Amino acid sequence: MAFWLDLMFGNPIGLMSMIVIFTTLGIISYIMWMLFVKSAKP
């Protein structure tokens, strides 16, 4: 576990990849929420 934490957050490349992954998940969840709100209204 410590190896993966050091690999992801110990160097700039791993940190940038984590930022990209979390940003992508945030954008996808925002788009899904917008589609859900738009389709819920009659």
Keywords:
single chain; 42 residues; mainly alpha; 2 helices; 88% helix; membrane; transmembrane; DUF3149 domain-containing protein; DUF3149; transmembrane helix
Note the total helix count.
Answer: 2
| Content of β-strand | under 5%
What is the oligomer described by this structure?
A: single chain
Domain count, please report it.
1
Total number of beta strands: 0
What's the alpha carbon Rg, rounded to whole Å? 16 Å
Protein model, in words:
By secondary structure, the chain is mainly alpha-helical. The protein has one domain. It has 2 helices and no strands. It is rod-shaped and about 50 Å long. The mean pLDDT is 88.
Q: What's the short version?
A:
The protein is mainly alpha-helical. It is built from 2 helices and no strands.
Strand and helix map with partners:
Layout: H1 2-9, H2 12-40
Keywords: Membrane, Transmembrane, Transmembrane helix
Pfam families: DUF3149
Protein name: DUF3149 domain-containing protein
